[in-house]
Structure formats: structure tokens, C-alpha cells
Design goal:
Layout (H helix, E strand, L loop, with lengths): L2 H18 L10 E6 L5 E5 L6 E5 L8 H12 L7 E5 L4 E5 L6 H8 L4 H18 L11 H19 L6 H20 L2 E4 L8 E2 L7 E2 L6 E4 L2 H7 L8 H17 L8 H28 L10 H13 L5 H11 L11
Antiparallel strand pairs: 1-2, 2-3, 3-5, 4-5, 6-9, 7-8
Length: 345
């Protein structure tokens, strides 16, 4: 089925959902494209006042909507602000959700930059407090296990180095990369394991006047390292915080966890290493995913975020003796290849 056919089918389904709720709507349902994301899901906004809904097209052969529905219910019970699922057809791959609006964290942070420090501070505090609540949610999700961690990092070699940069690494470089991957796997697994959103960043958080933030895109959640979502938020692929602010927020979150006995008292240095190495794992993955989106899915827009990702990785490597060689390799071998206009914003 073509994209246009899926859209027509979704409009027909949306009209039925609205009619079933005795809502008066125009003959032609006013569905407006809300966004695409880094998956195969597409989102449409129904804007006929006074009702506002989001309709989701998640092709069932490649997207499973059941985790989203289950997690949404658990989040709402925990007091978090997420889309309410009004209807879901798993066979068709359609959902009808409440609309959390259009005010992305990313836009709000960019607007507050250098102008409203208190606003930015409040946004991050709300997001971290919501993360603290989210980590305690008792819902069964897959483990962020060795196989998944390794498969994600393999995207770096396969899609970023090989397919995008056409960089043929030597056997010695392959061996060193494998040793790095093993170190990062061990770091992830030695941390306390909690509920992990897996994409907790400024493009999946909405500014809300009540119960901020609104949280989106949690269907790929897993049980994994306590610092994973923390690094997704603070070393965001789309927005860069100053290093001193990152450190301050990391220690704020560590204190929250220790004070409420979520984790045993772990010293600041070790907790920061957990955070830094978890970020390195995530950014290796993201570099690969962004290139796959370009080459496989025809979405080149994410390539412009890769230079920031590489900068994050280099900065972390510079702080640890066992990572410095990889940082040098990134600087000397990888970074020069990012001068192509494809990678420029």
C-alpha cells in the first residue's frame, strides 16, 4: 500500500472514531501532517475546534503499537503527562491520541538561550523530576542486554564508517573498536537497571502549562542503565548544554536517587563515568542511525547533527585514559570526513 493510500485509509478510520464519539466534523476530516520521526510512524493532527487529537499511522508489519498503549497507561497512572490513547487498531496500525500541542522543548530551550536562564533551568528541572518518576514505573519491558547494546554500536561501523563515510577500517582498528564496545557494554550492565525511555530528549518533550513536560515516543522502552535517559537529555543530539550545566544536573539527579534510596551511595566520580560512557555508547548508536536514515530511508536531515555527536564523543574520550586513543582516532581519521556539505547545518 502506498503512502497516499495509507493516508486515505487513516482519514476514513479517523472519521469513524470521531463519529463514534458523536463529534460533529466536516465531511473531509481536516488532518494536517504533524510530524514524521526517525521511525516509520507518521503523525497527523485533527484541528477542528474545540477538539484536538493526534492520529498515528504505524504500519503494523514494521511498527508494534502495543507497547506504546501499555506504557501510556502506566505513565498516566504514575502521574506523568503523556498522550491518552482513545483508540487503537493494531491490525490497521492506527491510533487516536490526545494532542500535547506544538511547543517542543527544543524550540523553548533555543528561545531561552542567553535570554531567560530561569526558564531553561525550570524546563530541565521538570524533565529530570519526571525522569525520576518514570524510572520507578513497574512495567515489564525488554532488557537492554548485551545483544542489543552491541547491535546498536555496530550501526556506527556499518552505517556511519562504512556506508556513509566509505571508511575501510583495518583489522587492528576493528579489534580496538571491539574492545571499546566491550568496555561500554560492561559499563551499562554494571549500573542499576531501571525503566529506560530510550529517546528522552528535546524533540520528544513538550512544554506544558500543567504537569510539564509532556512526554512522547516511549514505545521502544527497555530495562537498562540508570544514566541512559539522563545522558539522552543532557547530551542531547539536537541541543548542546554547557559542560558545567551538564555536570550540575548530573549531580542533582544522582542526589535525588541516593536521597530516596533508589541507588546505593555511589561517589560522584564513578557516577559521572557511568554517565559519560553511557553517552559514548548512545552517540555511537546515533551516528549509525542518522546515517541509516539518510541512506536507507531518504531522510538526510539528521546528518547535520553528527558533528555535535562526534564532538561529544571526543570530549568524553579526552577525560579518560582508557578512551584517549579512540578520541585521537576520531579527530585524525573520522572528523576530517565530516567537512562535506552533507554534515553542515
Amino acid at each position: 500500500m502506498t503512502r497516499d493510500q495509507r493516508e486515505a485509509q487513516l482519514k476514513e478510520w479517523a472519521l469513524k472514531q470521531l463519529a463514534d464519539r458523536s463529534m460533529v466534523v466536516p465531511a473531509e476530516v481536516p488532518l494536517v501532517r504533524a510530524s514524521d520521526d526517525a521511525s516509520f510512524r507518521r503523525y497527523y493532527r485533527f484541528q477542528a475546534s474545540p477538539h484536538q487529537f493526534i492520529f498515528v499511522d504505524a504500519p503494523p508489519k514494521i511498527e508494534n503499537s502495543r507497547p506504546f498503549v501499555a506504557i501510556s497507561k502506566s505513565f498516566i497512572e504514575a502521574g506523568l503527562n503523556v498522550p491518552v490513547v482513545y483508540a487503537a487498531d493494531y491490525d490497521l496500525g492506527f491510533m487516536m491520541l490526545s494532542d500535547l500541542g506544538t511547543d517542543l522543548y527544543l524550540s523553548a530551550l533555543e528561545a531561552a538561550e542567553n535570554r531567560d536562564v530561569n526558564k531553561a533551568h525550570a524546563l530541565y528541572k521538570d524533565a529530570l523530576d519526571a525522569l525520576y518518576t518514570m524510572q520507578s514505573i513497574p512495567i515489564e519491558v525488554p532488557d537492554y542486554d548485551v545483544a542489543l547494546l552491541r547491535a546498536e554500536m555496530d550501526l556506527f561501523a556499518d552505517w556511519f564508517l562504512d556506508k556513509e563515510l566509505h571508511l575501510r577500517i583495518t583489522e587492528d582498528e576493528q579489534r580496538k573498536l571491539g574492545a571499546l564496545f566491550q568496555l561500554l557494554v560492561e559499563n551499562a550492565l554494571q549500573q542499576p537497571q531501571v525503566f529506560v525511555h530510550r529517546d528522552y530528549h528535546s524533540r520528544n518533550l513538550m512544554v506544558s502549562d500543567v504537569n510539564n513536560p509532556g512526554i512522547l515516543d516511549f514505545q521502544d522502552a527497555v530495562q537498562g542503565a540508570v544514566t541512559y535517559d539522563l545522558v539522552s537529555l543532557l547530551r542531547d543530539c539536537y541541543y548542546k548544554l554547557p559542560s558545567e550545566e551538564i555536570e550540575s544536573w548530573v549531580y542533582y539527579f544522582r542526589s535525588l536517587l541516593i536521597d530516596e534510596q533508589r541507588i546505593e551511595s555511589v561517589d560522584k566520580k564513578l557516577f559521572m563515568r557511568w554517565f559519560d560512557l553511557m553517552g559514548l555508547q548512545r552517540h555511537l548508536k546515533c551516528a549509525g542511525i542518522f546515517c541509516r536514515l539518510h541512506l536507507r530511508d531518504g531522510k538526510p536531515g539528521y546528518l547535520g547533527d553528527i558533528p555535535l555527536i562526534v564532538r561529544y564523543m571526543k570530549d568524553v574520550c579526552a577525560d579518560y585514559d582508557d578512551l584517549q586513543a579512540f578520541g585521537v582516532w576520531l579527530s585524525e581519521t573520522v572528523e576530517p570526513r565530516l567537512k562535506s556539505e552533507l554534515f553542515q547545518r
